[in-house]
Amino acid sequence: MTAEDLQSGHIFLLDKPLDWTSFQAVNKLKYKLKREFNLPKKFKIGHAGTLDPRATGLLIVCCGKFTKKIPEIQDAPKEYWTEIKIGVQTESYDTEKPEILQQDFSHVTEEQINEALEKFIGEIDQKPPVFSAIKIDGKRAYNLARAGEEVEMKSRKTTILYIKDVKIDLPLVSFTVGCSKGTYIRSLAHDIGQELGVGAYLTQLRRTKIGEYKIEDATEKFLENDFRFENK
């Protein structure tokens, strides 16, 4: 790979680690590329679909002329491996905030869980979490929420393409979900808990696919505080 190759266009598949923002991951890669290939300051680079800090997995980064492909990749269906915990909730719908509203779930059966999951397949109305990057009057919702302000999120249409590979080990339930652009798996976890009547939140999330790109094809990995290329 040369500097000319990168500026002509290249797609990197990264395996984003836990607690990194997508912005941090892109900046880390950008710094490495500019240092190793002596790229210009205005070298174009960006990711095709944000991953929450508490999520891991496939982050697609486009550079050079391939940054024009970002909207197309962002519009592609996504797939996630998901784990939720029932019988308790959090304000953020994930592990960012502490557990609240614990409820007895001893009466919940595997059959009820599978039936609840089935109800979410297809087009659904979904409210994004208040702890999200959506802008409200020009401000990020998560900044308003963290400042203690009341945030009213509007519901939007999204599509759950499939839910499969369900494993139940109460209070944990894991599954693979395919979905359209703009789906919040944190909200899906919360809504499943509401459907069951005992609450739930997202404990683990790993993006495994975006369109034709798969996590198995990721050849660049972040290792602790360093970044290195692993060429397959």
UniProtKB/TrEMBL annotation:
Keywords from the named record: Isomerase, tRNA processing
GO biological-process terms attached to the record: mRNA pseudouridine synthesis; tRNA pseudouridine synthesis
The keyword Membrane is annotated on this UniProt entry: no
Any one GO molecular function term: tRNA pseudouridine(55) synthase activity
tRNA pseudouridylate synthase B C-terminal domain boundaries: 186-218
Physiological role: Responsible for synthesis of pseudouridine from uracil-55 in the psi GC loop of transfer RNAs.
Record NCBIfam families: TruB (TIGR00431)
Protein name per UniProt: tRNA pseudouridine synthase B
Species: Chryseobacterium soldanellicola
